[in-house]
Amino acid sequence: MEVRNYGLVVELPDALVTGVVHVSSLSDDFYRFDAAQRLLVGRRTNRRYSVGQEIRVFVARVDMFKRQIDFAIADETAKKRPRRR
Predict the structure, then answer these.
(1) What is the pLDDT of residue 80?
(2) Is there a contact between 21 and 31 (Cβ–Cβ < 8 Å)?
């Protein structure tokens, strides 16, 4: 993974695919970019995304015309809510 001011550039080496997790899709916090350390740091949670870190993602959008893939972070802490009857 590579960190840029606009988000996280993610590479899936098994599929030879590269895409972006845009910073606007990180909705759990407001992230600021630390250019010196190449980090995205959450203001409230202090969650950090750094170069080389492994994250779980899923495909959020594919633009065949532009040949771009947008990923979103798969939240491992998300739990299914019970259905209301």
Answers:
(1) 43
(2) no
